[in-house]
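To whoever picks this up:

The parser on our side crashed when reading a file containing two proteins. I've narrowed it down to the boundary between the first structure block and the second sequence. Both blocks are reproduced below exactly, byte for byte. First block:
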Amino acid sequence: MAASAVPMGDEYRTRLIYFLCAVAFTAVVFSLLARDRSPAFQPQSSLPEIQRYARDTLSGLQEQSIARNQEYCGVIYEDEAGALHTSEIYEGERAECEFDWGLPLGNHVVASFHTHGGYDFDYDSEVPSVEDLANDVDARIGGFVSTPGGRLWYNDWQEGTSTQLCGEGCLAQDRRYVAAPKEDLALTFTIADLQARGAYGTQPE
C-alpha cells in the first residue's frame, strides 16, 4: 500500500523537531558522564577476549530466545584473577529484560548482554535500542545485543556507539527473518542515529 503524501512544509518541520529531540537526548545522556564519579572499572581481560566471551554466551541463548520469542539477559563479570564469568541468565518479556547487578565482593561487571527474541515486523529489533545504548553509557560498561537476523552488536560506552561485531547470519537466525524484506543497516550507530530511527515509525525494543 502506498504511503500517504505529507506536505513538504509539515514534513520539514517534523524532521526538524525529531532532529532537535535527538540532539537534546544525546546531550542529556552524555552530561551524565560529566558528573563527579569514581573512575570506571578497568578489566584485566582485553576487549577482544570480552567480545569473544559475549559472542559464545549469546550464541548459546539465541535459538531458545527465538523459539520462545522473548529476551534473555545478564551480565559478564570478572573475578579478582581476571577470569570472565556469566551471571545468572534472566528470562525477560517480548521486548524487555531486567537483571540483577549484585555480585559477590571482588567481582566486577564488565558488560551487559541480551537477546532480542524472534522476528516481529512491529519491532526494530535488528539494532540495539536507544535505551540499550544509553543504559550501557550510563553504567560505563560494554554491552552486547544479538538480533533475530543473527547479528551481534557491541555498545561502546566510551564512544557512545553501537557497532556490528558480526553481521546478518553470524548467529542463529529466525526463519521468519530470512523470509522478510532486508534493510541495509549501517555498521555503527550513535544514540542520535538510533533516536532518529525510532522517530520515523520504527519501534525500538
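<<boundary where parser fails>>
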Amino acid sequence: MSQKFELFAEDRPDQGKGASRRLRRDGKVPAILYGAHRDPRALSLNHNALMHHLENDAFFSSILTVTTGDKSQPCILKDVQRHPYKNQVLHVDLQRVLEDEEIRVSVPFHFLGENTAPGVKAGGVVSRVMNELEISCLPKHLPEYIEVDVSDLELEGARSLGEVKLPEGVSIYGGEEMLDQPVLIIHRPRREEEEETEGETPEGEVPTIGAEEPEED
C-alpha cells in the first residue's frame, strides 16, 4: 500500500444523543474504536479532515493510523453513517487490527480492458455484477484494490470470481461457494435481445406470416 492515512482523535467522555449533537455543532464526528480484545473507546474526529480522507477511495481499504495524544494504533474503517441529505458524517466505526490476526474488509475491483475487449468491439455492453469483494487477510497483505482483467472477453462472455487472481495472502470471505458468481458480463444491447426474442417462434407452432389463404370452392 502506497498511501498512508492518519486520523487525529480525542477521547469522548460524554456520550448519548445530546453529547453527539454538541460535537457535530463544534465540527467534530463521534466515533467508536473497538476490537483487538480490548474494550471499546469513544472518540471524536475532526469533521473536515475526515471528509477530506473520505474523498479518497483508498481510505476505505487501507490500514489507518489513529493517534490520540502521544499514542497511535492501526485500525480499519468499518462503517460510516452519513446524514440522509446533508454533506455530513454522523458517526464512524473503527476496528483495531493486530498484525497476527486476519481482518475482514471489502475491497474494490479495478477492471482492466473493458473498452478493448472483443465483446465490446462487437457492440456488446458491459455489466458489472460486483464492484467490490469481501476478503480475509492479515493486515500486511491488505490490497488497496483487486485487478480484474476482462480484455479477452467475447460477446456473451463473463468473468467469474474463481477466475480473478487474488493477491498473495488474500482469500475470499465466504469460501469456494462464491467462486462461480459472475463479476462482469458482456452482453448484447437490450434492444437486440428483445428483437431476437420477439422474432422467435414458439416450439410446436408454424409461422403464419406469408402463408397462402385456402382457395374458395
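After patching the parser it read the second block fine. Residues 208-217 have pLDDT under 50 and may be disordered. Residues 190-199 form the longest helix (10 residues).
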